[in-house]
Write a structure and sequence with these properties.
0% strand; 79% helix; Ferritin; 4 helices; 141 residues
Length: 141
């Protein structure tokens, strides 16, 4: 088993809290959409929410393997009231994830934890795609 720092374990828990937050946030946005603009977005939000939940699960499994205990508390959830407000928040949340996950990748690399590094490189690619989706959707509003 790889021995990693408490700092890296804490970072994985930050990632789990973030993934839980956006999984709930995007799913609730999905179910609350109304109107023509919402119709075009809601299925994409549902798909992204499910991907985020899978990320939370994968990170939690890795954390447990490394000897940590996964958090059950999501970061603060912001559903929003308008389509624009929701998408702006979602874009910001993805930007924050990208920053955090790059730090985790670097930390894992420095601690010779190749599995965590590879896991987060894969998740980072998804988060960049989500960021691109929200950025594109905002251009249409």
């Amino acid at each position: 088993m790889v021995k990693v720092s408490k700092e890296l374990l804490d970072m994985l828990n930050q990632a789990i809290a973030r993934e839980l937050q956006v999984a709930i946030q995007y799913m609730w946005q999905h179910v609350q959409w109304k109107g023509v603009k919402g119709f075009s977005v809601k299925d994409e939000l549902k798909k992204i929410a499910i991907t985020e939940m899978k990320h939370a699960e994968a990170i939690a499994e890795r954390l447990v393997y490394l000897g940590g205990i996964p958090t059950t508390k999501p970061d603060p959830i912001f559903v929003g009231n308008t389509l624009k407000e929701m998408l702006e928040q979602d874009k910001k949340d993805e930007e924050n994830a990208i920053i955090l996950y790059k730090k985790i990748i670097e930390k894992a690399r420095n601690e010779n934890d190749e599995t965590t590094r590879k896991l987060f490189e894969s998740i980072l690619a998804d988060e960049e795609e989500h960021h691109d989706t929200f950025t594109s959707l905002l251009e249409e509003i």
